[in-house]
Write a structure and sequence with these properties.
homodimer; alpha/beta; Molybdenum Cofactor Biosythetic Enzyme, Chain A; Molybdopterin biosynthesis moea protein, domain 2; Molybdopterin biosynthesis moeA protein, domain 3; 4 domains; 6-stranded mixed sheet; 7 helices; elongated; transferase (chains A, B); MoaB/Mog-like_dom_sf (chains A, B)
């Protein structure tokens, strides 16, 4: 049994190899009310000017600015209110000298008016109000098109549709939105030691936790998941399952089976599928055996069976690939610098990824390993909102060191408020 | 028409008033495969030890450590392999002196063995292998219970269930999970100037964008939304709609109608409902008229009709309240410090919330207003992943200043990778 020789590549190089692939999903049209979180498949242009008409930014009175010239504390000028318009209504009247129209925030400036007086700047009279200052031409008027002009690209192809983008689409009347389809994924947990969650424990076996964990990570990104039954460590049946999953889905994610041990069949399966193995060894701990391959224009993610490594592999390779496939222009994880609040003395030649809890209150950004005391690998993922990245070297890290942390949103909610 | 007098309170005080309310959802049981993003309603305990048995952390050979004593480069000691076990299987054999069992990562240590030799540390022979170093008692063995012992609380009531928590629940056989129910929400966009997204434009009117925006923000948190038809600015019919929404939902979110203008009926509606108004003026821009009230044990969020203010109000008050209602122990937004990359010279006595784009690549954290050039309020929300918080004062802010930014996840994906 010869041991396969593998050559580790840097994490950054591994990520780039994954994202160099030209594997994309098709585009489709989606209801405005369901498109949040999708990636735009076309530029979106403004279908009209914003503001669409000269409008009032305040509750107050529309006036002719020239009528206000010379007003002062000692010489208040009186106006007669001839109409009263709410937002959404338009006055049919045209202002004559000395006249004003009561106007609400957002309402269209009536003909003849060229300035707005705020309610607070007036004193009521029987048929109108007086004011004590003069107004300039166009003072307190939001001009047509000053924010956005017809034809301006307001949202870009490749942009993630957030709630703000939904508001823009609504504003311009896009009730259907061109988006890239979300990929679908097959999850295959390998290993004859694995039981289903519902199963009673048996000697020598453990329940499959990587499968549900990866399913949850995928579902959070809106990726539809098919979970395949756990495979016994048997080459022929494993190959058949991977083949059938690959036919149905855009990506096949396996957990476990990527080492070079006797029962690890994935390298053979990749050969049988004539897959191009992008890498099968990464200079990182844990998860150095993480493998990514491409076959028939689809991704095969061979994540480690170790829960922490499985999680890191997903965050580093699978999640960016999902957004890359959907044509997103932004798909890299957010990385912050934080002050280490615990000693972490283990040195390692490879870059270490350590599950971590980041505190982001504005006052300070601090981080500590979430599995620092006795809690185990799986438990510590549950208590983390990021991964510390500790570059390889001969020394460990100490309290007070500044380290980099990759955020694994959205677990960024904080226990304290700092305002 | 007397103008109602309102007294602004600080943003922090406003948030605290919202979160002081004892308004909680009930608990329910949820399938493991659907519980991601929910809040745990009970502590979860380990149902067995992890590791559950003494196991091998490596692929290699289980030996009796005493048999390896005295081994060296010059004096290699030979072992005979008597069995071969994969993960999930247990050897029926007990080791005698000089014997070894081939063992896979994760497999149970066979009887008699007390150390594991890594594959790389051996040289194969006809019936086994030789090694050149001695091993200590329990060397390379993961001991039963060393990570987590039976009965340990592994997940806490009030914790958000992330993918790691799903893995923990799977590990300990929790196929059903106790969670707090997500609240449901009614959204009522007020204002007779509003058209539906599908409607053609009419003079003086704009399409309702706040409603779809707030719906998208709620849906991202998994909150079920009922959108009510846009109301004309009429007190009686508005009151009837708010009443009916309040009966059916845990929270009623209105947009617009909170000013003190003639057509703003919400203050009257709160009075008619005998609601306790927690505040109706906050020392912030935009959105100073944001109102939060409580009636019949339910929240009424009166968000501003200005899109930016509507968005800020949701992030500052509604989102934390949703997690507070679900019994979460963490519900405050994440706040980071970033270097301002653009001048922002407008001074304001109130705290300003400015839609912003934060770059988080690890190398540096920078922020710029996302509506810096000509793009309008709604468009700039679409291009933001955070809100700068600029404390009120008499001066503006300049390039190079360090400012605080409230993250509005999950739009934290980056265009560049820094590793």
């Amino acid at each position: 049994m010869p041991v396969e020789k593998r050559h580790p590549i840097p994490v950054k190089e591994a990520i780039h190899r994954v994202l160099q692939q030209e594997i994309y999903t098709s585009s489709e049209r989606m209801s405005l009310y369901e498109c949040e979180g999708y990636i735009l498949a076309e530029d979106i242009v403004a279908t009209y000017d914003i503001p669409r008409f000269d409008k009032s930014p305040y509750d107050g009175f529309a006036i002719r600015s020239e009528d206000s010239q010379g007003a002062s504390q000692e010489h208040r000028i009186a106006f007669q209110v001839i109409d009263h318009i709410g937002a959404g209504t338009v006055s049919a009247k045209t202002l004559e000298p000395g006249q004003a129209v009561r106007i609400m925030t957002g309402a269209q400036i009536p003909a003849g008016a060229d300035a707005v007086v705020m309610l607070e700047q007036t004193v009521e009279t029987e048929d109108g109000f007086t004011l004590r200052k003069s107004f300039k031409h166009l003072e307190n008027i939001s001009l047509q098109g000053e924010e956005t002009a017809t034809g301006d690209v307001v949202l870009h192809k490749g942009q993630r549709i957030n709630a703000g983008a939904v508001a823009v689409l609504a504003t311009f009347g896009y009730s259907e939105v061109p988006v890239f389809r979300k990929p679908t994924a097959a999850i295959i947990a390998t290993g004859s030691e694995l039981l289903e969650v519902e199963d009673d424990l048996e000697p020598g076996k453990i329940r499959n936790s990587n499968g549900p964990m990866i399913a949850a990570l995928l579902q959070r990104e809106g990726v539809q998941v098919e979970r395949y039954r756990i495979q016994v460590d048997d080459y022929e049946s494993s190959l058949a399952v991977v083949k059938s999953a690959l036919e149905k889905h855009d990506m096949v994610i396996t957990t476990g089976g990527v080492s070079v041990g006797d029962f690890d069949y994935l390298p053979d399966i990749y050969r049988a599928l004539e897959a191009e193995v992008l890498f099968n060894k990464v200079a990182m701990r844990p998860g150095s055996v993480t493998t990514v391959a491409v076959a028939h224009g689809k991704y095969l993610f061979g994540l480690s069976g170790n829960p922490s490594a499985c999680y890191s592999g997903f965050e580093l390779f699978t999640k960016p690939a999902i957004y890359h496939m959907m044509g997103a222009t932004r798909y890299y994880p957010a990385i912050v610098r934080a002050t280490l609040m615990a000693d972490f003395k283990k040195a390692n030649p490879f870059t270490r990824f350590v599950r971590a809890d980041v505190t982001m209150t504005g006052r300070e950004m601090t981080v500590k390993p979430s599995g620092f005391n006795k809690s185990g690998a799986v438990v510590s993922i549950a208590h983390s909102n990021g991964m510390m990245m500790l570059p390889g070297g001969t020394r460990g890290y100490q309290i007070g060191h500044e380290v980099e942390v990759l955020l694994t949103s959205p677990e960024t909610y904080q226990q304290e408020l700092y305002l």
